[in-house]
Each structure stands twice: as structure tokens, then as C-alpha cells.
Amino acid sequence: xxxxxxxxxxxxxxxxxxxxxxxxxxxxxxxxxxxxxxxxxxxxxxxxxxxxxxxxxxxxxxxxxxxxxxxxxxxxxxxxxxxxxxxxxxxxxxxxxxxxxxxxxxxxxxxxxxxxxxx
Length: 119
Prior knowledge:
Shape: globular
Strand order of the largest sheet: 2-1-4-6
Number of helices: 1
Largest sheet: 4 strands, mixed
Order of helices and strands: HEEEEEEEE
Mean pLDDT: 85
Radius of gyration: 19 Å
Number of strands: 8
Low-confidence stretches: 3-22
Number of domains: 1
CATH superfamily: Cupredoxins -  blue copper proteins
Structural class: alpha/beta
């Protein structure tokens, strides 16, 4: 019985180690007045990245990324309560800014950072 417990323990550790090797390449970003949560997300360059945007606010919001990150367009604007998902392949590693492009929202604090790690 002790041997079975030890074997089960080793198997558990191996499964957890293998699961930890996979890199998660997705994020959910919530937009509201006047903040973006989380204020920082990570992705892996050259691998499909799925970004889900949720407007938790009472006015229209959107999310803009620097053109060095992707050529895929993000939604023009999300109405209150609206959700959108976009998948793209980050072009290069580095740290980039994202922001709400609705006039005045970026200045009011709706900014964040996308960190793209090398693959």
C-alpha cells in the first residue's frame, strides 16, 4: 500500500509538471469607467492569442493596441454589457501599451500593458 501511495504521489507530481509547461495564451479584459482590468496581460509571440473584451461600464468602450503587435482589427466599440473575442498572432516580443480609444478615456486612465514573451 505504501508503494502504491508513493507511485500515486510521483504520478501526481509528473502530471502537474507537464500541465505547468503549457503557456496560456489568452486573456480577458474588462472595460469600465474609467479603468481597464487587468491593467497588464501577457502573451507569447508567434502563437495564437485570444483576447476577450467585456464592457462592464455604462458607456461605450473599446481597446486599441499598438500596430507593432498585430494587424488584426479590434472591435470599433463595445456597447455597455457587450462582449467580443478576437484571436491574433502577436508579431514580436516586447512590452506594449493598450488603451481605450474613445475620446477622453485614455487620458482618464484607461490604459494597460501587454507583455509579449518570446516563444
